[in-house]
Amino acid sequence: MIAGDFNDILCAAEKKNGAPVSIRRCNIFRERINNCNLMDLGSAGAKFTWRGPIYHGGQRIYERLDRAMSNDKWRIQFPNGFVKVLTRIEFSDHHPLLIHPTGTTYNVAPKQFRFESAWLLDDSYHDMLKTNWKNDVTVVDNLGRLQNEFR
């Protein structure tokens, strides 16, 4: 089993924003994984494991650069194993990975909602807010509706 920041993605779905995805580069990465007889273990949690800096227009690039892979022997030995993407810590632009070889689950507190000021720079933010904020509903219900919209 191998895990870490591979600095590459396998397909366009593993990237959000920025320059178009190089399908050629994705294919080369996939080919290298196949040549090593490895399989991606997938993950539970955040879809993207890396976030880039804010660039023009207030957007960020998000990618799934971090992953865990194994060979058939590892999967046979740990059939219930899985990978969990943990919450990113403040000083890193990567989310840490937690590998559970035995498949043991644990309880996680719900992720706390946090407003990102960069959303104010996104042209679609104000329209989304107008659509989802209802004056005849409590503030708590409105915030819950917005939180679901952001996910």
Characterization of the model:
This protein is α+β, with helices and mostly antiparallel strands. It has 2 domains: 2-106, Endonuclease/exonuclease/phosphatase (Deoxyribonuclease I, Chain A, 4-Layer Sandwich); 113-151, no CATH class. It has 4 helices and 9 strands; from the N terminus they run ββαβββββαββαα. The protein is globular and about 60 Å long.
Helix and strand topology:
Layout: E1 2-5, E2 15-16, H1 23-35, E3 39-40, E4 44-45, E5 50-51, E6 62-63, E7 66-70, H2 72-77, E8 82-85, E9 97-100, H3 123-132, H4 139-150
Parallel strand pairs: 4-8
Antiparallel strand pairs: 1-7, 2-6, 3-7, 5-6, 8-9
Keywords:
single chain; 151 residues; alpha+beta; Deoxyribonuclease I, Chain A; 2 domains; three-stranded antiparallel β-sheet; 4 helices; 9 strands; globular; Endo/exonu/phosph_ase_sf
Brief summary:
The chain is α+β, with helices and mostly antiparallel strands.
CATH class call of the largest domain: Alpha Beta
Mean pLDDT: 86
Spatial extent as radius of gyration: 19 Å
> Which descriptor suits the 3D outline?
globular
Order of helices and strands: EEHEEEEEHEEHH
According to CATH, what is the topology of the largest domain?
Deoxyribonuclease I, Chain A
User: Which architecture of the largest domain does the CATH hierarchy give at level 2?
Assistant: 4-Layer Sandwich
Poorly predicted segments = none
Largest sheet: 3 strands, antiparallel
InterPro entries: Endo/exonu/phosph_ase_sf (IPR036691)
